[in-house]
Design a protein that fits this description.
single chain, mainly alpha, 6 helices, 2 strands
């Protein structure tokens, strides 16, 4: 085995640990949001991202930016937005300065649901991180993630 092979093996192990941590956190949050609010993680993230928009310059997200925020393709994001619009959680309207552009906003019902779901999301995240911190393979990643909280 060469030095490069060893380095790649370490990177691979690190990537596997990060993927495992992400999967466990997302699964835990998904269960909590579904049980408490009939909301998926992606739906929650979409509501959260869109709720941060504002009317100032650069304040509205284009669909590509929304897709990046919820980690979906543009077509999957459009389907998600449509489903949530059908549930009354989002509204779409034409951009007043460029009739080709379409904005998506969180409706009042969506803001209420987001407000109700935020404590559930935060508690589930904390629970998942606390559990992962007990795993020696995941503990360093949890510490790193928690240190980012102070930076952001």
């Amino acid at each position: 085995m060469t030095a490069t092979d060893t380095a790649l093996t370490g990177l691979t192990q690190g990537w596997c640990a990060l993927s495992l941590l992400h999967g466990r956190i997302e699964t835990h949050i998904e269960r909590a949001l579904q049980a408490g609010h009939a909301l998926s993680v992606r739906e929650y993230n979409l509501l959260d991202s869109l709720s941060r928009q504002h009317d100032g310059e650069g304040g509205h997200l284009q669909m590509k930016q929304v897709a990046d925020a919820v980690v979906l393709s543009q077509s999957a994001t459009t389907r998600l937005v449509t489903r949530m619009e059908d549930r009354g959680l989002l509204t779409r309207y034409l951009c007043p300065t460029d009739r080709r552009g379409i904005y998506t906003n969180v409706s009042e019902a969506g803001l209420r649901l987001l407000s109700e779901a935020r404590p559930t999301n935060d508690a589930a995240l904390r629970e998942a991180l606390d559990k992962a911190a007990k795993n020696p393979q995941l503990a360093p990643l949890v510490r790193t993630l928690e240190s980012l909280d102070a930076v952001v």
